[in-house]
Amino acid sequence: MRTSIATVCLSGSLEDKLYACADAGFDGVEIFEPDLVVSDRSPEEIRALADRLGLSLDLYQPFRDFEGVAPDLLEDNLRRARERFATARRLGIGTVLVCSNVATATVDDDEVSAAQLRRLGDLAAEHGIRVAFEALAWGRFVDDYRRSWRIAERAGHEAVGVCLDSFHILARGHDPAGIEEIPGDKIFFVQLADAPALTMDVLSWSRHHRLFPGEGAWDLGAFVRHVARAGYGGPLSLEVFNDVFRQADTRRTAEHALRSLVWLEDRAARLPGSPPTLQRIADPDVPTGFDYVEVKAEDTGDVEAVLGQLGMTFRGQHRTKPVRLWSSGDSRVVLNEQHARDEAPHLAGVGLRVTDAAVVSDRARALAVSPASRRTQAGELEMAGFVAPSGLEVFLNDRDLGDEPAWVAEFEHGHAADPSDPASGGGVRAVDHVNVSHGRDAHDEAVLFCTSVLGLRTPPATEAAGPHGLVRSQVMRSDDGRVRLSLNVAPGGVRHPDHVALVCDDVVAVAQRARERGLRPVPVPDNYYDDLRARFGLDGQVLATLREHRLLFDRSASGEFWHFYTPRIGRLCFEIVQRVGDYDVYATDNTPVLLAAQDRMDRAAAAGTPTAGRSGGRSS
Ligand SMILES: O=C(O)c1ccc(O)c(O)c1
Ligand SMILES: [Mg+2]
C-alpha cells in the first residue's frame, strides 16, 4: 500500500520534513496545520516543493471542534471550515481531517451531528474536498470509531467519510474488528501509531508517548489487516506524537519511521486471511544462537586477563589482523585492536547464527538497514552484517550450525578447545545474553531493528533505579531464549558499561577459581544478603555461599538464577550466570544493586582507593 507520514512526527522546518520524507522513500505526507502556520513558505510553494520531491500531499489536518454544537456556533464553524478548505486547495490536498469535538459540543445527538456534517460535506464538495471524520479518544461525545462511522453514515454525503487512527481505537480498548463493517470507500484515511502499555490519561498518552509500529504493546498487524479487508485503498500513514522523535534527527527519524511501516505491512500480509493488497518482504529468520561477541580496544590485554580469570581459553591470533580469539564451550569472544586507537574496551559487535543469512540480508535491505562492511582477505569467510541503531555491528553465520564455526581456523598459535575445554568442568558454556546501553534517541529504533530485522520479541520493559537515574531496559529475545539482547537506556549523559553474560553450570566454582586467579567481583553489600534472607527465606548455608562469593540471586516459579559481575574494563564488563531449573526471567531486582556497586567502584577508582582494583593482591 502507499506510505505516508504526518509532518508532526518529525523535527525541523516544514521543508526539512518534506526533504527527509522524500529521501527516506515515503510516497506522501499529511500536512499538520501548525507546521504550515509557522512556515514562511506559501501553500503554493509547499505544494511545488512536494511535487518536485515526488511526494503527494495526502491530508490536511486537524480541523477541530465542529460537530454537536448549538446552531449559532455552527455558522462560525462553517466559516472557519471555508478558510481551511481554501488553504487545502492551495496545497493541492483533497482530504481534510475533522476530529471529533472536544471543546464546544453541547448536543449529544447523532442526528444533529450527522446533519451538521452534511452541511460541512456540501461546503467541502464545493471546494473539491473530502472530509475524514476522526473520533478522538477524548472527544466530548464522539470518542469511539463506531460512533464516528454511525454519524458519517447517517450524514449520507459522498464527501463525508471517516479517518481511522489506531491510537484512538486501541487506547480505548475498542475492538478493531468492526472496521471490516465499514465500506472501504468510506474509510477516507488511516493513521497508525503504536504505544507503550501505560496507565495514564489518554490525551497525555497520545500527545507524548505514541511510538512507531513495532515499538509498543499493540498488535497493529491485525489492525492493518482489518483495514485492508474492509477494502481501504488509501495510504497507510504514520501519526506519531512523541517527545523524543520531535527532537531527534529529522532524516534518521524519517528512515526509522518508514522501516516501521514496511515491517508492519509485511506483518499484516503474513496473517491468515490477509488480502493481496498487502505487500510482503523476505521472511524473518530468527537467530538460533550467538556465534561470537566482539570487543574492540586499542589494547585488549585487560579484557584478556579477565577472560583468563573466568577460565576461558586463548585460541589464537588471527592470521592477518590484530584480532585474537578466546573461547569456552560454545562461547567465543573476539578481541579486535584494528582501527581502535585511543578506544577503551567496548562491545563492538555480535555474531548470530541464522538458518539462511541471504534471507536475513534481503529482509534487512527491504527495511533499509545499513550493511556493515568488513574487509576480508582471501581464504577468510565472508559474513553478511549490518549496523544496528546503537552502532553495534551484527554479523550472521549460517554455516557450521552445531559445530565450532569454520572461521575459528583463521586463528593460530593458541590452545586447542579440546580436551581441556573448561566448559566440561562446569566452566563457561555459552553466551547467555548481551546487554547494550545507548542514549534515549537510539532506543526505539534499536527495538524496531531487533523485532523487524531479527524477528526477536519483546517481553515487558522494566526500569531500575541507579544512583544517576532510572535505567530503562527492554529485553529482546528469541522464543527459545538462546538469543537475548537487553537494550538499556541510560539516564542523560551516563554511560553504563555494556556487558556480556556467559552461562555456566556451576557459578560457585567459576567464582571460586576466578578469585584464586585474582578477580575481585563487583562488591555486593551485606545489606543485600539480609534482604535476600527476608525475601526468599534462604537457608544459612546457601546464604553463606552467596555471601562468600558475592553472588546475586533470584528465584522465579520455575527456577533460580545465580550470577556475578566482573569490574568494569573500559566500557565493558562480564557477567557469569547459572540458570537452575527453567528460570527464564530477568532478575530485575538485582540491577539497582549492580548499578550502585559499579558506581562505588567508579568513585573509588577516581579517588585512587584500592577497593576499585580489578586484579588480586589487595584485600577488602
Ligand atoms: O491530539 C490531537 O489533538 C490530535 C489531532 C489530530 C489527530 O489526527 C489526532 O489523532 C490527534
Ligand atoms: Mg489521528
From TrEMBL:
Origin superkingdom: Bacteria
Record's keyword terms, sorted: Carbohydrate metabolism, Lyase, Metal-binding
UniProt keyword annotation of Metal-binding present: yes
Binding-site positions, Mg(2+): H433, H499, E575
Pfam families reported for this sequence: AP_endonuc_2, Glyoxalase, Glyoxalase_5
Occurrences of domain Glyoxalase/fosfomycin resistance/dioxygenase (ranges): 443-536
Family membership: Belongs to the bacterial two-domain DSD family.
Protein name (Swiss-Prot/TrEMBL): 3-dehydroshikimate dehydratase
Species the sequence originates in: Isoptericola hypogeus
Gene field: qsuB
